[in-house]
Amino acid sequence: MNRNRFAADRGLTTRMVVTMFLIGLLYVVFVGALLALLRGSWPMILVIAGLLFVAQFWFSDRIAAFSMGAREVTPEEAPELHGVVDRICALADMPKPRVAIADSDVPNAFATGRNQKNTLVCATTGLLRRLEPDELEGVIAHELSHVAHKDVAVMTIASFLGILAGVITRIGLWGGFRRGGRDANAAMIAILVPLVSAVVYAISFLLTRMLSRYRELSADRSAALLTGRPSSLASALTKVSGQIARIPTEDLRRSQPFNAFYFAPALSGGASFSRLLSTHPTLEARLEQLGRITAELDRR
């Protein structure tokens, strides 16, 4: 088991275990329902499910990094960013990840990877241009906390079911109707399969969103305790959130699909229902937690 100096979070561990159990149970029920409804397509369903799972687990980090425009950089190309990563890794006693920069004015950062051995941490040019070194350290510590707690891998697997539900439904319906288009049950299958798929997607979506909001608070806490400067992380959060609001909406919409990976959401709703579906807790909640940590460290 990999050891590091990031503060352990039993609440996060418990939520990850419960989420993975429920997602796994939902996955089994979903595949079972499709096998029952589309008997003639069961070989195709099982093969596609297996291939998609392997692709999602082994290649999702590379796909995400490529989609977000991450370009790996050397210490000579980005000495300041590498220096910050080196300091955080030394503090956390963890292997240094690959370091990348994304050419985007949206100030943000993210980390991907199944484990500490194949991690990539990336900052955008907009973030590097706007943050002070101590603020950048807080952001990088936040991102590496996700890797140390393994919640990046859990979110990758958990989000897989929603993708699988849509793909298998299309393939299963196509295969089922190709085999039995004149069957009297075809109309019933056409109703039930999309309905089952929609229910599975909705449940998996809500489970991953609840876990995502908690893991952001956990990463803030771990980063603040590791660096000993929660005020720097709070300053970075405030600055990034304020600057994101000034970015053209068109640019933010291009970044929005990757909100779950980012340090701060590209777009977030203000309504209560929107917050329920958000990948991140509110800025106020994050700053309030950092304020409590500052008071705790002062008492010590």
Automatic annotation (TrEMBL):
Q: Give residues annotated as binding Zn(2+).
A: H142, H146, E216
- Classify the protein's membrane topology as the record does: Multi-pass membrane protein
EC assignment: 3.4.24.-
Where the record annotates domain Peptidase M48, the positions are 76-291
An example of a GO molecular function for this protein is: metallopeptidase activity
Q: Which InterPro entries does the record match to this protein?
A: HtpX_protease, Pept_M48_protease_HtpX, Peptidase_M48
Cite the active-site annotation: E143
Q: Where in the cell is it found?
A: Cell membrane
Superkingdom field: Bacteria
Predominantly, its location class is: membrane
Name what cofactor the protein needs. Answer: Zn(2+)
Q: Cofactor note, please?
A: Binds 1 zinc ion per subunit.
Q: Where are the transmembrane segments?
A: 12-35, 41-59, 152-174, 186-207
Uppermost EC category? hydrolase
Question: NCBIfam families, from UniProt?
Answer: PRK02391.1
Q: Which PANTHER family match?
A: PROTEASE HTPX, PROTEASE HTPX HOMOLOG
Similarity comment: Belongs to the peptidase M48B family.
Cross-referenced HAMAP family, in alphabetical order? Pept_M48_protease_HtpX
Q: What is this protein called?
A: Protease HtpX homolog
Origin species: Actinacidiphila polyblastidii
* Source species taxonomy: Bacteria, Bacillati, Actinomycetota, Actinomycetes, Kitasatosporales
